[in-house]
Amino acid sequence: MTDYKNLIDGEMVDNGEWLDVLNPANEQVVGRVPACGKDELDRAVAAARRAFKDWRKTSQEERQKVVQGIAAAIKDNADELFRLLTSEQGKPHAQAQQEIYGAAGLAAAQSTLTLDDVVNQDDDQRLSRTRRVPVGVVGGIVPWNFPVMMAIQKIVPALVAGCTIVLKPSPFTPLTTLRIAELIKDVVPAGTVNIITGEDHLGPMITEHPDIDKITFTGSTATGKKIMEGASGDLKRITLELGGNDASIVLPDADVEKVAEQLFWSSFSNAGQVCIAAKRVYIHKDIYDDLSKAIAEYAKSVVVGDGSQQGTGVGPIQNKKQYDRVLELIQDAKDNGYKFLTGGDKDPSGTGYYVPITILDNPPEDARIVAEEQFGPVMPLLKFDSIDEVIERANNSEYGLAGAVWTKDTDKGVEIAEQLETGTVWINEFMHLSPFSPFGGHKQSGFGAEYGVDGLKEFTYPQVITVKRDAVV
Ligand code: NAD
User: Fold this and answer.
1) pTM of the model
2) Which atom of ligand 1 is nearest to the CA of 401?
């Protein structure tokens, strides 16, 4: 077992109090991290505030170089990092590798983003332009499903925009992020990036801290609401990436054999613990029987187990709380007599938070397992008749994160996409995010956006400078 320290003001430090981090595959302690409180937070914020004075004045090129250094540090140590990620998060090695290389790729790509001045007026009377200025010290709070990707997608745009950051990983998955902190300690100027760990109660301290100017948060909608409330005291800027209950819509012209496997992984990647996983799969009645059979058949070939073992496709649920919640949803479905194509029948007791692959056969629309975000290896298949009906059903949710349409007729797919009330819609794929396109939720799935220039702007204020050209002074 290794102790992982925090990064504050360019130094790796601890406070002598520790939190254990478990491997969800076997419930054994894999590492310890500092259990921080107000004192450590104050120190990190003060360091970020001091560093902001110089960092805000750096050129685009200097920031780009530092961020590319972060990308390189992650890529060069990918082998160690993905193994550590599996040991704390549970995801299979191949998916952990994707996350680590994905985070390095995101950092490299986003280092190239720029926010150029915009000329609003340029005539005999005035020259007016809008420039973007960094908001200041950012508080970043991230969840446990993609701990590294989420940390990088907060740290990188903050630095590129000229801000400094204090980041808090989830207490369930802080290890890989702290190892990255150690690797980038001498890459980033002291105080620009601070990473501190602690239990959930550290979150509200960040949200309410008087010397933090902006909160960027990824996590549940319930916590997002608390953050909005906590940040309201001094009107901090906020970006919230929250929950989702994304719908996939499969039209009758889709090739059953070809889409079955893709649909499976759109729900079961990372054991379903993905905000943009397909959580409701609507299949047209003409192909429902064939496609549901093909998905259930494919599911039989996928191994649920320890992510560090070769051949594992679906790892454990990341933590006990989420494990209990997913089991409760499955139990509710059983109690209501809904039909299972796979799962539901096994006793998941034993060591490790394993849940069998669970596919439900056309449960009612108001079943909890359909209406709530499952965030686990669960896939309700739902039969539909007409396009108008399925659009209405897909939109009947408090969430609005993403969705997909599967069809050979891509024009038809786009026509449907335009009627969905979500921030992202894919035609014939799922979960693809580009570093250059904004990603954000509608309705209760979020507030603001990450990624792309829109995401970068969220770390800045607009400032308009106007020169009166025909003035007499
Ligand atoms: P969570 O909201 O419980 O926790 C997220 C983070 O917030 C953790 O670091 C936690 O310590 C901290 N936190 C807890 N209480 C807090 C408070 N009162 N104030 C401030 N911070 C607090 O979420 P989770 O269970 O870690 O993650 C799962 C959820 O995240 C799911 O709902 C999922 O859909 C969502 N998610 C969304 C996206 C997205 O981009 N939209 C991505 C991943 C996950």
Assistant:
1) 0.97
2) 41
